[in-house]
Amino acid sequence: MPLRAQYNEASTVPSIGVNSVEVDRGLWYAGPDLVASVLLAGKAPNVRRAIRIVPKGQQDGLTPVKLQGVEIDPRRDDFFRRVI
Question: Which of 11, 21, 76, 83 sits 20 to 30 Å CA-CA off 60?
């Protein structure tokens, strides 16, 4: 599994390494890291529990923004679909 950790003492930014890791407890991983593990190892990791984050409601004060000339209104547009 890819592991996000601080590999350089001079930096406060974690990086990603593909290491052999042994821990006494489970570790949290994002979906893309699980996909990377399957591609690198050729087998699916053991997933004990999965959670899904589901949006609820809408944040007050959202305003439209322009990205490279394309206006995106977060109140009505799907940000990721508009960007892609």
Answer: 83
